[in-house]
Q: What sequence folds into this?
């Protein structure tokens, strides 16, 4: 990849639209479309995006325990308003169910392999 392609790749990962990415990279949108049609560029883009998602997932996972602890503290704090305690309890239940479903799906997938 040449320097302009690298700059375009970085812009694609940080800008909300392809037009904004092209502008950020200092290239025309048509050039960006041409880059995106190139299999090698497409491969690099997919790898970079996959790494971005993996990093974001790790950050979210690190935040789960403190976030759940904060919600639990609100639920258990009698000085909090009833509305706050109900909202925190609802969130704990919702996320607890989602995590349970997710773990069940993972377990099922592992059984298939």
A:
């Amino acid at each position: 990849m040449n320097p302009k392609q690298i700059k375009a790749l970085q812009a694609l990962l940080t800008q909300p639209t392809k037009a904004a990415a092209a502008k950020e990279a200092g290239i025309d949108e048509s050039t960006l479309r041409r880059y995106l049609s190139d299999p090698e560029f497409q491969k690099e883009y997919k790898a970079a995006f996959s790494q971005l998602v993996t990093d974001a997932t790790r950050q979210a996972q690190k935040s789960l325990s403190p976030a759940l602890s904060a919600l639990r503290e609100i639920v258990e704090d009698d000085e909090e308003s009833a509305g706050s305690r109900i909202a925190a309890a609802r969130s704990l239940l919702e996320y607890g169910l989602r995590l349970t479903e997710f773990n069940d799906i993972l377990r099922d997938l592992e059984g298939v392999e």
Helices lie at 3-14, 18-25, 29-37, 39-76, 82-112. DSSP finds five helices and no strands in the chain. The CA atoms of residues 88 and 94 lie 10 Å apart. The mean pLDDT is 93.
